[in-house]
Amino acid sequence: MRAMILAAGRGERMGELTAKTPKPLLRVADKYLIEYTITGLRRAGIDEIVINVSWHGDQIKTALGDGKRYGAKFIYSEESERLETGGGIFKALPFLGSDPFLVVSADIITDFSFEKLPKYPKGLAHLVVVENPPFHPHGDFGLNGKYLDMLHAPAYTFANIGVYRPELFDGCEAGHFPLSKLLFPAIRKNEITGELYHGLWFNIGTPEDLTAINTRIREDTNLACK
User: Fold this and answer.
1) pLDDT, tens digit, for every residue of 80-109?
2) How far is CA 153 from CA 46, 113, 115, 142, 156, in A?
3) What is the pTM of this model?
């Protein structure tokens, strides 16, 4: 399975921290934030990784290189302006092949085991959801058995971890569009499976989040090894 790391966003909520530095290169302990995702993918045996870049993208390419030092091959999908999640994945499809692929955000830290994800989802995609964090109390969608449901309660938060079939993007055109434009109709047709994860999951969205995760990693040696 190939994977894509979403790393094109500016990270506006980080304020001055991302004015001159792309969010994926912010430091968490002695690593770049994006390196936690890279490590998780490599642990799952995934060594072909597409990374989309836009804001200060050259810095990301220089810092990470071609992937050899991680035991991987990196391919960069460059966006002259950020295309949002849906548009960014669509642009990268030629690099991702004809089989289902994994997409993960560069700004999460988790101990989720990517190798447990289905390589061939029953529907068009398989998404991981988590209990609602304080910054997103109302969640995104519920789980009705093994399928995501827009109306089922309780609603959970999308963990920014998912496996997608290229067919989900059939009929799309290049440009800006959110992933929800494709997911919501497919969920209503019972074409998206999901799972609830109860383990460690952190979304690093603000300077306070960055401070908190650095404190947590100093106290948690298992997380520091991710």
Assistant:
1) 999 999 999 999 999 999 999 999 999 999
2) 34, 26, 28, 6, 9
3) 0.95
